[in-house]
Design brief:
3-stranded antiparallel beta sheet; single chain; 22 strands; mainly beta; globular
């Protein structure tokens, strides 16, 4: 399955409703991380109804215990193609016996991809098809090749916010034993430096004001990801020499220490009333 124009081609898989590739046909540059078990087999999962996981890897609803894998349900599910034409594709998933065993709330999930010139717009519609309030959160986890071009290195790249930022960084204990701390940051650019990820594991920023962030390379090629409206923005690569980086807009985040709160009261959780639809979107522009 693919969307294509004169310059760009984007391919997809129904597993997780994910992007498989985003290719510049003129330069041959592949922008999306292709997955590799050596570093991370994932590519660009959508995170629903949880970002990360609870501290105990399970949770309780109405006295019954449930559990999901890391980042929820969608990344492990096979979606159905609802619509496809030359520039737009829609995939969907309805809750089923398997999802309800892990997350006891009926839902309808749709993701729409639209390719226009150098920009892919991704829009999500999540509908509560049950008869009670549905607690959930949501996030994106797109991985991008870094470096993008031959004779470049990971360290040649930087991440740039569209405006100077004064915000807080969520700094967590990598042993998950102590509550996270919020540390003040003033910055506009972040170097692609493996040492940063060895220090922090994941860079997580709260309430950025920028409209987008860019991954910028020395030869003028890069990626721009919109983050407007998302309360958190995360940056991640798993270990030294991993040739990719993830730029992740989130509504919520994982538990970074033991918490004594209900599932619905975790930080970043939202609530959707019966028959109501949550809609959000973001864009990926390549150059």
């Amino acid at each position: 399955m693919k969307l294509e124009n004169k310059r760009y081609e984007v391919t997809f898989t129904t597993k997780g409703g994910e992007i498989q590739s985003f290719t510049d046909k003129q330069t041959g540059i592949q922008y999306m991380w292709q997955g590799d078990d050596t570093y991370w087999s994932g590519k660009n999962p959508s995170l629903f109804p949880i970002v990360g996981n609870t501290h105990t890897k399970d949770y309780e609803i109405d006295g019954k215990t449930y559990a999901m894998k890391n980042h929820g349900l969608i990344r492990y599910a096979d979606l159905q193609v609802k619509h496809i034409d030359k520039d737009t594709m829609v995939m969907q998933l309805d809750s089923n016996e398997e999802t309800l065993r892990q997350y006891p709330f009926p839902f309808h999930y749709e993701v729409m991809y639209r390719l226009q010139n150098d920009t892919l717009t991704i829009t999500y519609h999540i509908t509560n098809t049950g008869n009670q309030e549905m607690p959930f959160t949501f996030g994106l986890h797109p991985g991008f090749q870094c470096p993008l071009c031959e004779e470049e290195s990971f360290e040649d790249y930087r991440i740039r916010f569209s405006q100077p930022e004064t915000m807080q960084q969520l700094v967590f204990d990598k042993a998950f034993k102590k509550p996270y701390q919020l540390e003040h940051r003033q910055l506009q650019t972040i170097p692609c430096d493996y040492a940063l990820f060895e220090q922090y594991a994941t860079l997580i920023y709260k309430h950025p004001k920028s409209t987008f962030v860019s991954l910028e390379g020395p030869k003028g090629h890069g990626v721009e990801v919109s983050i407007f409206g998302y309360p958190y923005f995360a940056i991640w690569t798993p270990k030294r020499n991993a040739p990719f980086i993830c730029l992740e807009p989130w509504y919520g985040h994982a538990d970074y220490s033991k918490l004594d709160v209900a599932f619905k009261d975790r930080e970043g959780m939202m609530s959707l009333s019966p028959n109501k639809t949550f809609t959000t979107s973001y864009t990926i522009r390549v150059y």
